[in-house]
Amino acid sequence: MSTAAPLLGIAGLRGGYGRVEVLRGVDLQVNPGETVALLGSNGAGKSTLNNVVCGIYQAWAGTVAFGGADLSGAHYTEVVKAGLIQVPEGRKIFPNLSVLENLSLGSFTRARERRAENIDKVFATFPRLKERTGQLAGTMSGGEQQMLAIGRGLMAEPRLLILDEPSLGLSPLLVEEMFGLIRQLRATGLAVLLVEQNVGQSLEIADRAYVMENGSIRFAGAPDELLRSDELRRAYLGL
């Protein structure tokens, strides 16, 4: 693990909806250049954590530090400006806009002046998107839409990219392809927080892993440590 200050530092984070507490004192870190897997079953609180960290929902308590700045309570536009970018669960692309239009919107808040250059970089990473520049996003396959969602995130020149369930709804072949793309991002030195239910694939590429259950972190450590423990595998991963 890096001895440098964490790029993302979450401490004692609490939050929820109405009077229902979902996050119960979450502590989590992502270091520069690191790929961290956040695992847990559906309903564990993973997406709520993402949305609180990214300023979409307000935290009830706790702190979010990013790149040395305190983003606790910051509006989501300020979070994006800082370079903390989420590719949300379900892709959330604009189906009636073209591939190029969707990508262009990714640089609306950050890196707008380098939009053309970054579009070229996205097309180099995802050649299939270049072939479909003018195609309406809603007419693309699920795998292509996920590529578009990640490409749109890259348009903002992220310092940390949060990928929320990127393999959800994809065929096994496309899941393999998606994790191959995540490996490519990892190789560039981009910090990635990978939020997934696909345990095996995630642990293969992660530097560290967290397991979340009922809004709390139940495990934090090396993937090998998690896989070596029969008790942890049975209790939290269903393996």
TrEMBL record:
The keyword Nucleotidyltransferase does not apply. InterPro entries: AAA+_ATPase, ABC_transporter-like_ATP-bd, ABC_transporter-like_CS, BCAA_Transport_ATP-bd_LivF, P-loop_NTPase. PROSITE patterns: ABC_TRANSPORTER_1 (PS00211), ABC_TRANSPORTER_2 (PS50893). One of its GO terms (molecular function) is ATP hydrolysis activity. GO terms for biological process: L-amino acid transport. Keywords: Amino-acid transport, ATP-binding, Cell membrane, Membrane, Nucleotide-binding, Transport. Residues 8-239 form the ABC transporter domain. CDD domains: ABC_TM1139_LivF_branched. It holds the Pfam family ABC_tran. Belongs to the ABC transporter superfamily. This is Branched-chain amino acid transport system ATP-binding protein. The lineage of its organism: Bacteria, Pseudomonadati, Pseudomonadota, Betaproteobacteria, Burkholderiales.
